[in-house]
Structures are given as structure tokens and as C-alpha cells.
Amino acid sequence: MKTFRLFIGGDWCDPAGGKWFDSIEPYTGRPWARIPHGGPEDVEAAVAAARHAFEQGDWARTNATTRGRLLRRLGDLLRDQGEEIARIEARDNGKRLAEALPQFRYLPEWLYYYGGLADKVEGAVIPLDIPDVFNFTRYEPLGVVAAITPWNSPVMLMLWKLAPALAAGNTLVVKPSEHASASTLAFMELVQQAGFPPGVVNVVTGFADGAGEPLVSHPDVAKVTFTGSVNGGRAVNRTAADQLKPVTLELGGKSPQIVFADANLDNAVNGVLSGLFLSNGQTCVAGSRILVQEEIAPEFEQRLVGALADLRMGDPSDPATRIGPIANEMQFDTILGFLDSAKAEGAELVVGGHRATRPGCEEGWFVEPTVYRNVRPDMRIAREEIFGPVAGMMTFTDEAEAVAMANDSPFGLAAGVWTENIRLAHRMAASLKCGTVYINTYRSVSMMSPAGGYKLSGIGRENGQEMIREFLQVKSVWINNAEVVPNPFA
């Protein structure tokens, strides 16, 4: 088995407690790598290294143009060496290699984009109404940023945080999920090669109580950016609130895909496949609530079931595989629990609904692609995030009912709308209470467009030109140009 080490202060090191834990390969259910079991001492060392780099090291003297150049160099390295990290990530979390490789080919764009923005952040001269006083603003970095990332796309979601944070001049301590830490540690080799000063980026692996909580609560951490579950986000927010430190939280979703009667059904089916089953449902924007106008529901269901029947399951490294394993045993058990709940609550099973037992799926954590019909809005599979390949179909009669059903959720991350009526599309975009609306597409993403959610789906946004300001603070500077400062008591 491969043994990974912590990355702190520009060096590879063993965890202070001398412990490692096994990372389990989802396809085989067997250990394949040893991950450092980091604890409070390691967090302390990482934060100290990040603070030193921010306040006193070479990074503190690096100007914005140079920061941008380093980020672009890191992008070049990821472009040239990303395939190996993609293979590590696919083995670690079960992502299909056919999905991981294209994702990693696109990831350098985040580093190029924010590398280009690094020296484009400008303050302003304020036209005051006070004579002889000159006022301007400066945007300054926050300091040490804690970035906590999930297991479904560890490197991508780390770069959503790392690229703007470093472009703004901050330093970083990354804590990846204990279920998929290997690719994040492998990426640090590129950070070394790019020439970032020691301490600018650090990685501490481990569990929430030993590494995550001490990192969030550390008084020298100026901001926390987190992607994960609602419960995890609540815990982060509570801990950060004690020190009034800002947070960005990208949390769960229960996103609807709304199919109107005039939609191109082939496109809509492909959108559902992309929005839910392409990633095995293991994405925050998974479109797992399928709302179909009642007059086309039977035909849409028939086409969707037909499309699912042709999907091959098995080894995620095989290019022919269309559905891979669930990323970890905990999530696998959670999904099976939702299937039991759906049966108990009376959802009508159309296809799937059980652990996969096909050839090639005997050892890993595989769940059959599952579709239920006649799902009620009060059922667990309609209310809670499953994070698995499980769709619940419901029907609606008209636009008003579609909007009401779509918005009847504690989440508000994304929604999909399938229609050929452009006026209807614009009305739906305005009416849906969520951070992203997809019209005749689903799950598109770009470094140029903000991502985030309403309601329980989070706080703040990631990506886009303005998001670099999430990692900056503004300072107002006042200069008196008058020859005499008057006595205030005269």
C-alpha cells in the first residue's frame, strides 16, 4: 500500500501522533493507501506555518503579479501531470476514470483565471463631501484561510477555494475528507514544483474531531471555506461564530429537474442522466427530484428507464463502465437506508431499488440506478439529500404547481427546467428559489460563473470574478490635505 504524509511548511512530515488510517478502494472494498491521522498538534504546526508565510515569509513580500504568475505555473503543471492525480482520485473515491480525466483537464482553468485576476483587484477613490480630505480604499488579504473539502471531487472543490484565496494573497490550510484525502496530498507535489514559498499551502488529513474542529476554532484562522453536508456546515458555522470569523458554506441540495410537456424528451432524459446518474448521484447539485408534467409522464418514464437499462456497472477504471461504486461504505449504507425508507413510505419502485449484484460488482459498494414514481412531497426521498443514484418522480399539472413543488424544499442549490418556450423559461428562472437555474442543460460549471445556494444549501458563493473579494477585506484610508487641523473645541 502507498503511504502518504502530511504537507506542512513546504515539507512532507509524519503525523505528530505517529498514526495512519487506511483508505479503502470503493471498487474492491479493500485498503489501498495509508493516510496520516492528523491531530491538534499537526493543525497547530500547519496554522503556524501559514501564519509565518503570510506575515514574515517570502509570500508576504510577493506582489500580486508574481502571485498570479505562480498560479499560472501551477496550472501548467496540473495540465501536464493531472492525469496521474486523476487516477489516484478515481481509485480513492470510486469516480469513473472517464469522468475524472475530463474534469482534471479542465481544472487548470481555475488557476489560469484567478492567476489573471490576482493583480486586477483595485480600490477606489471616494468623492467625499468634506473639504481638503482625500479618501481611498484598499483591498487586503484576510490571512490564514481554512479550506475543508468533501470526498466526491476533492481536488476540484479544493481549487475553487485555493485559486481565489491565493490570488488574493492569503495562505491556506486544507483539510480534505477522511474518505478521500489521497489526491489532495498528491496535488501538493505540484505546489512544491511550482515554487510557492513554504507555508503558503498546507494539508492536514484526519477526522473532524481531531483535525477539522481544531482547525476551524484556531484563533489564527481568519476565514473558513467549507463544502460538505448541512450538519457539517452547521458545526463549522457555530464554531466559527464564536470568534466572529467569516465563512463560505457550500452545502447540500435536493434539486428538481422540471420537464414541461413541450420539452424535447430525448434532451430531458439526457439531462436527468447527466444531472443524477453520471456521477452516481454523488454531487451537491444532483437533480434527484424529477417533476414531469402529467400528460407526458408515462412516455418520459419509459424513455428514462430504457436509457438506464443500457448502463454498464463495474470497474471505474474501465472506459466501458457507466456506473461505478459508491465512494465509501458509510454513504453506501446511507443510500440503502433511503431505499428501505422509500419502500416503507409507499413509493412505487420502477427500476433498481437494491444493492447491485451484477458480475463485476460483487466486492465493492454498488447500488443499482433507482427510479421511483408517485413520490409524495412528504417522503424522505423527496425531502432529504440522498447523495446516491436515486430519483423520485412526481407529476404536476401546470406552471404554478411546478414552481410550488420545486420550491417546497429546505434546500435551494440548483434546478433544471426543460422547455422549448423561452418566455416560460425566463419566468421559471425568476421564480425558482435556488442559486443556479439550468435551462435545457444541467450540471454545467465554469470558473467564470458563481455557484452557491439559497436556504440550507449554504452561505456565500464560489467561482466568478467577484468571488476573489470573498478572500479580501476592505480598508478605508483618510488623508487630510489642509494646512491646519482646527482645534475641535474652538
Structural account:
The protein has a seven-stranded mixed beta sheet with strand order 15-16-17-14-13-19-20, with helices on both faces. Strands 10-9-8-11-12-22 form a six-stranded mixed beta sheet, sandwiched between helices. A three-stranded mixed beta sheet has the order 1-5-4, covered by helices on one side. It has 490 residues and is α/β, with parallel strands linked by helices. Helix 2 (64-93) packs antiparallel against helix 3 (97-106), helix 2 (64-93) packs antiparallel against helix 4 and helix 4 packs parallel to helix 5. The termini are far apart. The protein has 14 helices and 23 strands. 37% of the residues lie in helices and 21% in strands. It is globular, with a radius of gyration of 24 Å. The mean pLDDT is 97.
